[in-house]
Amino acid sequence: MSVDAPVRRHAPATSHLDQPRGTHPIELRGVRKAFGGNAPILDGVDLGFPDDAITTVLGPSGTGKSVLLKHIVGLLEPDEGEVSVFGNDIWRVPPVERYELRKRFGVLFQDGALFGSMNLYDNVAFPLRKHTQMSEREIRDTVMTHLAEVGLEAAVDKAPNEISGGMRKRAGFARALVMRPDVVLFDEPDSGLDPVRTKLLCQLIAEVHREHGGTYIVITHDIPSARTLSDYVAVLWKGKIQHHSAADEAFGSSDPFVRQFLAGAADGPLGMD
Ligand SMILES: Nc1ncnc2c1ncn2[C@@H]1O[C@H](COP(=O)(O)OP(=O)(O)OP(=O)(O)O)[C@@H](O)[C@H]1O
Ligand SMILES: [Mg+2]
């Protein structure tokens, strides 16, 4: 897809934080994080992720995108600031409530993070067996529905190492969806895939989102993926959100950094440092 291709669709309302608290399912306010006395990786991140929209978080390698994702899912605690999930500051609620809130997330990690010793069926069934009281018959219906949704119903008996990287990502996506999450996060869904598989996976993500709705957060540095998927675009660099807007506005931005980054150009304010 060329960088001039139209963006996915016009975004609803706004995604900014200048609205009452709790407007968006996920809100980060002034999030700051440093590791071991080093310069902060996140240095006052303010960002809202609206419901029923796909927000992509873009940024050069090593800027802290995965660190940001770990804050959203509650795996890392900010040094300062607040991560609010459905109106709850996740580090101010009791651990048991934080655990319950996490159940509303589906996460697709970079490599699919499947259990190597289990076939695809058991991988996708795992969250249901762990977190629900469903009978094996209900589990079967749910697992098969989601594997069919990602086109893997014929591969249920395969082990992760018997299938391609693209299939592993789709299986990971099925597992992320199986608890009917309100929020689905993807860390670089495109990594390790060729451009055609990347495009197909992005189309699948967009289709599933259209079907189920919810808050989707996609972390990537792949511009074509962002064009296919985004309702909103946030650009993270030097610890801060440098740009945050509806996708069409981001891709039409006159800001030199945003233009350079979204065009993948070598010339501009963004260097190797
Ligand atoms: N647990 C940790 N302890 C110390 N440093 C960390 C930790 N996690 C991340 N970092 C550092 O934070 C920085 C940002 O890392 P992060 O993985 O978030 O980058 P990224 O934007 O996801 O990059 P990429 O696009 O390559 O995946 C890196 O310098 C990394 O070494
Ligand atoms: Mg990363």
TrEMBL record:
<protein>
    <submittedName>
        <fullName>ABC transporter ATP-binding protein</fullName>
    </submittedName>
</protein>
<dbReference type="InterPro" id="IPR003593">
    <property type="entry name" value="AAA+_ATPase"/>
</dbReference>
<dbReference type="GO" id="GO:0016887">
    <property type="term" value="F:ATP hydrolysis activity"/>
</dbReference>
<keyword id="KW-0813">Transport</keyword>
<dbReference type="Pfam" id="PF00005">
    <property type="entry name" value="ABC_tran"/>
</dbReference>
<dbReference type="InterPro" id="IPR003439">
    <property type="entry name" value="ABC_transporter-like_ATP-bd"/>
</dbReference>
<keyword id="KW-0067">ATP-binding</keyword>
<dbReference type="GO" id="GO:0005524">
    <property type="term" value="F:ATP binding"/>
</dbReference>
<keyword id="KW-0547">Nucleotide-binding</keyword>
<feature type="region of interest" description="Disordered">
    <location>
        <begin position="1"/>
        <end position="23"/>
    </location>
</feature>
<feature type="domain" description="ABC transporter">
    <location>
        <begin position="26"/>
        <end position="263"/>
    </location>
</feature>
<dbReference type="InterPro" id="IPR017871">
    <property type="entry name" value="ABC_transporter-like_CS"/>
</dbReference>
<dbReference type="InterPro" id="IPR027417">
    <property type="entry name" value="P-loop_NTPase"/>
</dbReference>
